[in-house]
UniProtKB/TrEMBL annotation:
The keyword Zinc does not apply. Residues 104-139, 148-183 form the EF-hand domain. One of its GO terms (biological process) is integrin-mediated signaling pathway. Coiled coil: none annotated. The gene is CIB1. SMART domains: EFh (SM00054). One of its GO terms (molecular function) is magnesium ion binding. Keywords: Calcium, Integrin, Magnesium, Metal-binding, Repeat. This is Calcium and integrin-binding protein 1. The keyword Cell membrane does not apply.
């Protein structure tokens, strides 16, 4: 494997990660090199210790695809397996895999739902929808008025909340996403 010498990953590890992700071996090696470069720890520590974690803020600040994404803190929160706002290499690999072009629609949809479920209650409630809209449209100079926010969230619920219970369940979200032909193209990041 050509570039594997620059990585401290063993061929067996690369093969295992390939089975568990949507990434190719060369992408896994590149991801490992990128992860090592994000760490402030000295190279012998950050490259050999699988428990090495990087603060989410460092990942966000050093990767342009995240730095300019309004959902970046939430993305890192969802992918942090230890839920401590720190990212391990395997967390990082999972994130890259889900946002890769080869990830399936069902995987991307499941993760999008988790990212948008800010309060982690298993449904998208009005507060989740308000947070999504706020992240998408609020700037330092401009923010949506309360009545406009209510109108937007009412329209989303009217369109997607099939059973009219005031929440968007995963099946309802999945159904709505299935009608969005560009979702596979937009829910991705080309980092490796």
């Amino acid at each position: 494997m050509g570039g594997s010498n620059s990585s401290s990953l063993k061929k067996e590890q690369i093969a295992e990660y390939e089975l568990l992700t949507f990434l190719r071996p060369r992408e896994i090696v590149k991801a490992h090199s990128l992860f090592k470069s994000l760490s402030i720890l000295p190279p012998p520590t950050n490259s050999r210790d699988p428990s090495t974690k990087i603060p989410a803020e460092d990942v966000i600040n050093k990767i342009p695809e995240l730095r300019y994404n309004p959902f970046a803190p939430r993305i890192c929160e969802v992918f942090s397996s230890s839920k401590d706002r720190k990212i391990s290499f395997e967390d990082f690999l999972d994130m890259l895999s889900v946002f890769s072009e080869r990830a399936t629609l069902s995987v991307k949809t499941a993760y999008a739902f988790r990212i948008y479920d800010f309060n982690n209650d298993g449904v998208l409630c009005r507060r989740d929808l308000e947070e999504i809209v706020r992240l998408l449209v609020t700037t330092d100079e401009q923010r949506l008025r309360d009545e406009d926010m209510k109108r937007v969230t009412d329209n989303v619920l009217k369109e997607v909340d099939v059973d009219e219970d005031g929440f968007i369940s995963f099946p309802e979200f999945d159904h709505a996403i299935s009608k969005c032909p560009d979702f596979l193209l937009t829910f991705r990041m080309c980092i490796v």
